[in-house]
Every structure is written in C-alpha cells, then in structure tokens.
C-alpha cells in the first residue's frame, strides 16, 4: 500500500483505558475498497427507509388520517417491511461490507452486480407493501408479506449478499492482511460461512416442509433454523468488529491465528449440522429443538471468552490516546454491555412475555452498536483526510446515546414481562393489568425514544462524513 493514501496522525487525547496508554503512530484506518462502501450505503439506506416506514405505521394509528385508507393491512405490511429493512437488510448488507474489507482486491463487474441485485430486491420489498390485500405474516426472525413481489425481493436481496460473500470465500489468494488484523478477518470468514450455512439450512427446510400448512406455521418453520444460523453470523461479525477495534486501539492483535480459528470454529461448526436435522421433517421435534439448543450453548461461551481476552489485552497494552481509542472504548462499552444484558434477560425467560423481545432487542442492539462503529471505520478509510478528533468524539457520544437508550428500552420491556405483560400485542390488543406493567412499558417507550435519537444521529453523522470529503485512493483491482 502506498504511503500517500494513509491518513495523518490524530491529536492525542487523555488516557482512555485502565491500563497504560500510548500514542498510536501507525495509521488508524486503511483504504476502504469500493464494494465495502457500496454495501455500507445500502445498509444505511435501509435504515433511512425503515425510519420513514415507521412513520407510516404511526400514521396508521391516527383516526383522522387512517379513515382515508380502506386497506387495514397496509400499515401491517409497512411494519413488516420496516422490520426487515432494520433487522435483515441492515445486518446482512453490513456483513457484506465487512466481507469486502476482508477481501479488498475483489472488485470487478460481478461484485457490483451483487450489490445491484440486492438493491433491486429491496425495491421489490418496498413495492410489496403497496400490494392491496397481500397478507403480512409476522413470523419470527424474518417476517414476510405473503406475495410473490415481496418474497421475490427478499430472495433477490439474499441472493446478492450470498453471491458476494461466496466470491469472497473463494478469493483466499486475494485477501490483503493489511486491511484487517488476522483474528478479525477470521471472524468475518466465520460470519460468511454461517451465512452460507443459513442458506443451506433454508433450502433443506423448505424441502422438508409438509404440504397444507397454515401460512404462519409454514413461514415459522421455514425460518426457524435458518434464523438461528443467521444470528450466529451476526455474532461472528460483531466479535470481528470488536477484534478490529481493539487492534486499531492497541496496535496489537488480540488472538493468535490458531486461537481465532478455534473460537470461531467452535461457534460456527456445530451449526453446520442444522441442514441435516430437517431430514426427519421440518415439523419434527429434532429440527425445532436442535436449533434452540445449539444457539443456547454455543454462543455465550465463545462471546464471554473472547470478551475476557479483549479486556485483558486492553489492560495489558492500553488504549491509544486518539479518536480510534475513544471509539473502541465507547463501542466496547455499548456493544458488549448490551450483549451481556441480552444473555441475562434470555436466561430469565420462562414464558411468552415481553421478556422475549427484551432479550433480543438487547442482543441485536449489541450487534447494531458494533456495526455502527464499523461504519465509522469504513467511512474513515474512504476519506483522503481520515476523520478529525471532533468527529471521533461525536461518534463516541452517538454510540453512548444509542446504547443507553437501547438498554433502558430492553429493561423496561423486561420489567413489564416479569409482571406478566404479553408479547406481540399492540394498541387495543394489549391488556395492561397492573401498575408494574404500566411502569415497565413506560420505561420501554422512553428508552426507545432515546435509542431512536441515537439511530438518527448515527445516520446524520455518516451522511456528513461521506459528504464532506473527497474519496480516498483505493488499492488497484486484481486482474
């Protein structure tokens, strides 16, 4: 890599970590390949669209406006597309952006076509919300609209992501180690393997579905095991971002190559069996329970061990006194904190109450906080001037705002659930029976408002960071 594309040093900050501190003289960020920026922008665009659709859901509850529309399912369809944009397109477009960082020389017509295919899929998903009479199916993991337009769009989005990450898996000779530390690159590799495993699980499950199922049951079973594997992909990508941030903030990789392969292999390896568990039928107990069992007993040991090694590494080497050190500290606090909160809330679940969404909103909030931090690093690598200290500080404050809001949101949900509040009930469907449920849901609403402010702040910061500087030179494409 030419020295001309490296960012200038960043002004030092006071000590950020509990251990000794030092100045980081190595470049803070590396040049961002064009595919990573394309996937990042698709992910950011999905969040903007999800926010606009959430306004449509609110409008649907206003009597003086809703009465002008005689399709009562329209707003539920908007809710489905909102959820899929915020939790499916955002997550897996970001996973593709990280895969592009792992294989930065993979840039040709095929990589651009993959992003274009996913973009067309998103457009079709949006169009599905406008199809009159199409039924929204609020299935777990990936809710859908039961119409070929939406289902085809969802399939195209995943086809674009999979075509890109598979090319990255096959491009082992074109991986540039300078772009990412080896342990983070291994984590991203594990995430892409999990994405492919999720697709294989979906194919085997669809083949094993019995005929004549009610549509909700059909999609619940079809998405059950693949959805669990997708969560494993999320965790692998989140851990990779943690390792990437730690390497940038300390100057040293956290894990050796052998340890990284062992940890991520222990997380992903058992889930490669899931396509086989549907052989007895997708409605068989083995299929349904094995996915839950694997996720329950493989994710938290690997996450806790990796987090412990990161904390020990940061105490031993100290965090750099610069913007990336600040970003690593804030992202670590928010992402790891939300993840641990998700573990605790998940262990408290005994029935179908709002403890369930409390658990997964905390867990997915941890992934989102990590991906937000990755977005800042990717954009910094695409600028000729990197990011100045003021922007890094604003990024740290934004992560703090989002993380605190998401934690309060989850705790409010959990408190209401601990007192019996049921899940998947809205407006007049809710039966709030006690003051405790009212307090919990009120705290949930307050936390959700703060988290929404943090999310909007993130989108505004990303837009300003990309708009305010010319693109950085990137590595030459391979032949």
Automatic annotation (TrEMBL):
It comes from the Bacteria. The chain crosses the membrane at residues 39-59, 79-100, 112-130, 150-170, 182-203, 223-243, 263-282, 294-311, 323-346, 358-379, 399-419, 439-463. It comes from Actomonas aquatica. This is Cbb3-type cytochrome c oxidase subunit I. Keywords: Membrane, Transmembrane, Transmembrane helix.
């Amino acid at each position: 890599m030419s020295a001309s594309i490296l960012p200038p040093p960043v002004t030092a900050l006071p000590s950020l970590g509990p251990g000794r501190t030092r100045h980081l003289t190595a470049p803070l960020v590396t040049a961002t390949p064009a595919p990573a920026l394309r996937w990042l922008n698709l992910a950011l665009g999905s969040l903007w669209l999800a926010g606009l659709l959430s306004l449509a859901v609110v409008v649907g509850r206003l009597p003086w406006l809703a009465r002008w529309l005689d399709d009562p399912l329209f707003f539920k369809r908007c809710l489905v597309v909102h959820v899929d944009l915020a939790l499916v397109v955002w997550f897996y477009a970001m996973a593709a952006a990280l895969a592009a960082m792992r294989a930065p020389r993979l840039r040709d017509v095929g990589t651009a076509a993959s992003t274009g295919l996913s973009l067309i899929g998103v457009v079709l998903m949006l169009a599905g919300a406008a199809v009159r009479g199409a039924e929204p199916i609020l299935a777990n993991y990936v809710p859908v609209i039961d119409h070929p337009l939406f289902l085809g769009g969802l399939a195209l989005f995943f086809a674009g992501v999979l075509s890109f990450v598979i090319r990255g898996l096959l491009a082992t000779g074109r991986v540039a180690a300078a772009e990412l530390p080896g342990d983070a690159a291994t984590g991203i590799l594990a995430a892409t393997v999990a994405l492919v495993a999720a697709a294989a699980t979906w194919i085997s499950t669809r083949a094993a579905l019995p005929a004549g199922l009610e549509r909700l049951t059909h999609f619940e079973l079809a998405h059950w095991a693949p959805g669990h594997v997708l969560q494993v992909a999320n965790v692998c990508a989140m851990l990779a971002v943690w390792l990437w941030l730690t390497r940038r903030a300390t100057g040293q990789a956290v894990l050796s190559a052998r340890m990284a392969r062992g940890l991520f292999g222990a997380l992903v390896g058992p889930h490669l069996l899931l396509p086989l568990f549907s052989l007895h039928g997708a409605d068989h107990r083995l299929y349904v329970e094995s996915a839950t069992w694997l996720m329950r007993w493989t994710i938290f040991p690997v996450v806790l061990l990796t987090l412990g090694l990161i904390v020990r590494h940061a105490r031993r080497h100290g965090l750099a006194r610069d913007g990336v050190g600040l970003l690593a500290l804030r992202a670590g606090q928010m992402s790891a904190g939300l993840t641990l909160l998700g573990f605790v809330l998940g262990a408290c679940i005994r029935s179908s109450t709002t403890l369930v969404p409390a658990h997964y909103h905390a867990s997915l909030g941890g992934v989102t906080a990590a991906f937000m931090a990755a977005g800042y690093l990717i954009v910094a690598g695409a600028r000729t001037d990197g990011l100045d200290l003021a922007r890094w500080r604003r990024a740290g404050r934004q992560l703090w705002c989002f993380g605190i809001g998401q934690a309060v949101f989850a705790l409010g949900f959990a408190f209401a659930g601990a007192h019996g509040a049921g899940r998947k009930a809205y407006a007049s469907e809710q039966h709030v029976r006690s003051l405790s449920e009212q307090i919990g849901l009120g705290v949930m609403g307050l936390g959700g408002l703060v988290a929404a402010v943090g999310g909007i702040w993130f989108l505004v910061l990303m837009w300003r960071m990309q708009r305010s500087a010319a693109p950085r030179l990137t590595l030459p494409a391979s032949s």
